[in-house]
Fold this sequence. Notes:
Chain A is 15% helix and 31% strand. By secondary structure, chain A is α+β, with helices and mostly antiparallel strands. Chain A has 2 domains: 3-294, Acetamidase/Formamidase-like domains (Jelly Rolls, Sandwich); 305-406. Chains in contact: A-B, A-C, A-D, B-C, B-D, C-D. Chains A, B, C, D: Its EC number is 3.5.1.49.
Amino acid sequence: MAETIIKIDLKQSPYENEQIHNRWHPDIPMASMVKPGDDFIIECHDWTGGQIHNNDSADDVRDVDLTQVHFLSGPVGIEGAEPGDLLVVDILDIGTFEESQWGFNGFFSKQNGGGFLTEHFPEAQKSIWDFNGMFTKSRHIPGVEFAGLIHPGLIGCLPSKEMLSEWNKREKELYDTEPDRIPQLAALPYADTAHMGKLSGTAKQQAAAEGARTVPPREHGGNCDIKDLSRGATIYFPVYVKDGGLSVGDLHFSQGDGEITFCGAIEMAGWIHLRVNLIKGGMDKYAIKNPIFKPSPLTPKYDDYLIFEGISVDEQGKQHYLDVHVAYRQAVLNAIEYLKKFGYTGAQAYSLLGCAPVQGHISGVVDIPNACATLWLPTDIFDIDVKPNANGPGAKVTQGSDLPLSKDK
Amino acid sequence: MAETIIKIDLKQSPYENEQIHNRWHPDIPMASMVKPGDDFIIECHDWTGGQIHNNDSADDVRDVDLTQVHFLSGPVGIEGAEPGDLLVVDILDIGTFEESQWGFNGFFSKQNGGGFLTEHFPEAQKSIWDFNGMFTKSRHIPGVEFAGLIHPGLIGCLPSKEMLSEWNKREKELYDTEPDRIPQLAALPYADTAHMGKLSGTAKQQAAAEGARTVPPREHGGNCDIKDLSRGATIYFPVYVKDGGLSVGDLHFSQGDGEITFCGAIEMAGWIHLRVNLIKGGMDKYAIKNPIFKPSPLTPKYDDYLIFEGISVDEQGKQHYLDVHVAYRQAVLNAIEYLKKFGYTGAQAYSLLGCAPVQGHISGVVDIPNACATLWLPTDIFDIDVKPNANGPGAKVTQGSDLPLSKDK
Amino acid sequence: MAETIIKIDLKQSPYENEQIHNRWHPDIPMASMVKPGDDFIIECHDWTGGQIHNNDSADDVRDVDLTQVHFLSGPVGIEGAEPGDLLVVDILDIGTFEESQWGFNGFFSKQNGGGFLTEHFPEAQKSIWDFNGMFTKSRHIPGVEFAGLIHPGLIGCLPSKEMLSEWNKREKELYDTEPDRIPQLAALPYADTAHMGKLSGTAKQQAAAEGARTVPPREHGGNCDIKDLSRGATIYFPVYVKDGGLSVGDLHFSQGDGEITFCGAIEMAGWIHLRVNLIKGGMDKYAIKNPIFKPSPLTPKYDDYLIFEGISVDEQGKQHYLDVHVAYRQAVLNAIEYLKKFGYTGAQAYSLLGCAPVQGHISGVVDIPNACATLWLPTDIFDIDVKPNANGPGAKVTQGSDLPLSKDK
Amino acid sequence: MAETIIKIDLKQSPYENEQIHNRWHPDIPMASMVKPGDDFIIECHDWTGGQIHNNDSADDVRDVDLTQVHFLSGPVGIEGAEPGDLLVVDILDIGTFEESQWGFNGFFSKQNGGGFLTEHFPEAQKSIWDFNGMFTKSRHIPGVEFAGLIHPGLIGCLPSKEMLSEWNKREKELYDTEPDRIPQLAALPYADTAHMGKLSGTAKQQAAAEGARTVPPREHGGNCDIKDLSRGATIYFPVYVKDGGLSVGDLHFSQGDGEITFCGAIEMAGWIHLRVNLIKGGMDKYAIKNPIFKPSPLTPKYDDYLIFEGISVDEQGKQHYLDVHVAYRQAVLNAIEYLKKFGYTGAQAYSLLGCAPVQGHISGVVDIPNACATLWLPTDIFDIDVKPNANGPGAKVTQGSDLPLSKDK
């Protein structure tokens, strides 16, 4: 078995582990060093570092401290990696801990981050998903079971100082256009809850003050939340600093395109088995700015879809110009209304679309003024037949259960 | 063989054919009537009605009159269809005309509609694609051949008066926010070039003055440009007027998600074989606002992908808030730069991404402030190996050819 | 459009067409010549040359003259082809004739060829399949509709004199082991009904007397009845004579692995669009004895299977040694019994397994003394749900119809 | 985590574990009892019980005692199961032991069981495969790496007394037709090495004398070696005795259709996670004789194939009558010759075809006198491009390594 180079203790605070960090900064020391060609295992906290529990209350989702997230394992240094290289990462496997066979999904309160449909679901809710081998189901959402397309939500290399500076500058400019907005427009550096790995003292304080938050995806990859970056995929990451500094976390048992519920996919703690190689000077050889990847040969075949269209006219009937975000929101809302006809509550449907291997396609982006987006709902994940027929919905799911909700305090 | 209920003559102007129209309006008389359960064939002009020719000049793309498009065949009335029903349409087949074994793709001049990357490709260009059975290749783009995922870009039922009125209102409001913008924000009604099928005289004039343009997708479907609405798919359309009034056109031999080049996919004239049925009261039974569909069991298997990521930071480094349109543009630009390393010109790469069965996925829409979108490039369509390796690009495509360009006058 | 180099007239006897032949012999003159790189269209009779009709009697199946089959179009000569080359054939497309939108499937009488289950279905029966675009269904088999995986049952190059001699020798030896067996062990040369293309006079008589029958697949390919040799596939054929001499026929709209009903798949007349190229000396370069091929990128996705196992213990309980033929027969019989529980007659089920895109896998061939074979039944071709559940079969197909049967005279 | 109801110790002889057995007999007591709806984990020895080692000598394969195999874990009793029921088994997961990250494949000596190509490879050889997460590669076969389609080679319920008696009778009859044959025609009961689980004393002796060997697949399933019975599949097993008595073993990391090398697939020790349910009276409800199953939604996508044809004319040119076994052997030999052109030795190619997810299709079984079978070789498992082109094989694999061979003593 490959060596586990970063270990965690689920009962311990991630702040006590020097091989964990929750900000991006070039000064964070390597947690461990490996060589090109090596394969190794890294253990990861769930993205909140254990703030969410396997119970039937959404209080923990409501009260979560989002300045702490995401707890990442790393950075792993690769001998010989230099700025301009491509770091080739094979995801050889991802798994759960024997003692932690569950994951969570939730909607944040609109007061604390919100989500894609926060106007429709403004308060904290949660669903818990049990793992049975490669399958999962939830006691809060009846009538579905499916295999996980397990993947890391967040993976990438440390930024250079120049890149970090550019990130902070452009996000601050956006933030400043509407500083009082809730949810906020961007998550700016915040030293109080920063965990900078092995850094300590003044060096830590300085880095913490300017360390980029882990929330958005950026040039290096980062929090891309791409469900297809799954076990078996090969990813080509730009390298910006000596030794590369690869960090990973935010493991998902399964997720729909868009990770619409924000909190988030089916979030889990677990381990990831990686192999690394280098393409020297690869950024220039292939004109790489953002990571590229090849998908896994091993993905669940949920490919009988029912497809919902959405256009960029919002819920109030207002016309937007080629806005795919609005269009996808309409497709999602259309799917939720459809599922309600089969007995689901709105919250169940919303959570399901965030967790199941739903596809979101950009279908038309030039036919002014409407963008068109489609949501692809796999029908094989349902116990009942959810396809349309001449008689209307037949069997419906057992009602009674729903996602626990915790009102804002 | 099923009956051909709408015939066209490629040598005749579509304006001379009463079974063609190019605006949406409830008053357009049915071109033909069928019964539920019937299957039938409809012939279609290419979307421009023959304005673009199989030659090596982009003058026709530059000079195209976009107020004429799209020429649609129909409307077909279905006996018994009433507002609130769902019209179930099986696309049994789509084909080309023996005498017209080619299609076109192009970029409009920024002065005349532009396209997704009009800032990068501001002048008219064109590529011609030859059909060889189910495959296509272009003399303007070397080293690619692929099977077509043939589909109608535009299909849907006539709107009601109320719906038409709503369309015109909301699009006018958007247009008025920046009326001098080029390209324009919306295509408003324009009577001069309207073709209202069998309507004539005052009735025609009145309808032409308020008939909605065919450019955007809307609640009824319309110009969705969804490549997966292909031969073999089943679509459920909302019905808004008595007899439904199904129209179809804008056939594509193949298209990438987004139809980024706007002019457009691989555009072609041809025929489509449909079967229709009704779900009475289906809009309410299934809470349907926009069409839904089931994809075809028969689609080309180009599923070895190289995937490019893009985030919502634009070419000038400006940060946008969860803007999937910007993110997808970056993914597309990243793919173009990559392909240039293999010998393609930028225009060749751009056209190819508009024509080939490229997928565009919405990958993250909640990780503030960056949306993440991915472009999935199928690698099996290339003669050469375009996957990355340690040595950099090996074989390159034969250079010399390029897309003809016609400068603005 | 590519040129049609071999045309047929469905109302004319294939014997009157010099570009048709029904035996394999190196002396048959080329029907037409093409160059490497050319693409062209060839029209084909159904394999019986029109002996079977679109009606509700199986008399024609009972009375068919099997010494006439298969009527092949060709041979097509390829300039420069020499023995030892590989002929690369791209199947660009296959289609039906507008005036012939149907196909047939049947069981021969045990007295006249029989079939895989002739002990169970000893008399002639027939099912007729109507084509609706890319889909088909049968008035003799309720509750199924599916897209065709259209392909030629028979395609290959002319044998050399030496190869022909070897074929005749080895098949005669087998035949002679049980010359009175019904059905016969092999179909030997038979001059009376031979059609030798352009050959006439003595040359024809001589060739007819030794021309190999077209029934079995052999080293050159021939009557392989491989459903995956479909439109879009690329095949590499050994070349044995100057100019190659490619012939093709026996088009199938769809077929299950094994073509178990023998008469046969969904048999049809139609046309095939081919492109040819050469790999000089390819047989040696790649150690090729039999053809190899790459499957099409375009195949129907019927991939939700119910899989039936069979072992090499026959219907009488007798143990056979690693006999895949017996094992597959048991898997087929198991599937038939299963389908009868859903309301199908045995004949309907048998015919369906011969026509639908059923897979037959060789699952175990070493676990003495039992071979294990599996039959993969695609469940999406059925209108009803045929998967097992705790309650037993739910909805059944409408009964009443069945395959017409004609008793032996 | 589900409970592990059967544990093993890789350092202990399986004969010392009461929850293991290596013969089929209705008297073997249940090793453990579960309820319908339960899920649980079972640990399994490799099929030889540890006789083969991770080294570079084939002595252990040559000297293996095949009367000991297969060591099965079970039988597991299911409360309420009765003869005539169907036992529904969901394979929730399968995994390896952390301390045993490897598997083996080999050819038995013709003196000791042989294999599919024992005439061509008559002596013992072995390849060792290392597991890297979900991927595997072998130090004895260069240039390949692929994801495992992990599955149990052997699984099924205990036979009734009547069924056992029938098995013994028919296999003895076959054996007696050629009792001196090597390899033998069937493996008859053999008490000396029988392990009958919890049975002891006279009861054990009696059962051991008549217990059926585990080698062949039979009505109950058993040693089917079906690669598609993989993690994620659902199987419906006939029940013949009270409580059912489900046993499982012979885990494979990967296997090609046919398990042609006999020793066998990539053989491994490991664990399997199962869930059981009952369909009362299901054998009659669905006319079930042999198990049926639904394949997993999670299988490796190695679907770019190069397909080799074989017909039932053997290596000596002798004609066989519709013999799929002979036809598949020719397809396999054709593939081996092809791979040798890319630098593989014959033994490497043979082993690879037994281990990789190769498909074996029954393509034609009625075209007298030749059966046609096809071997589907996935091309994506190779580091080099193995597809044909005009120039002949390009890059070849690194030569020098080969499978160790141990000569007969």
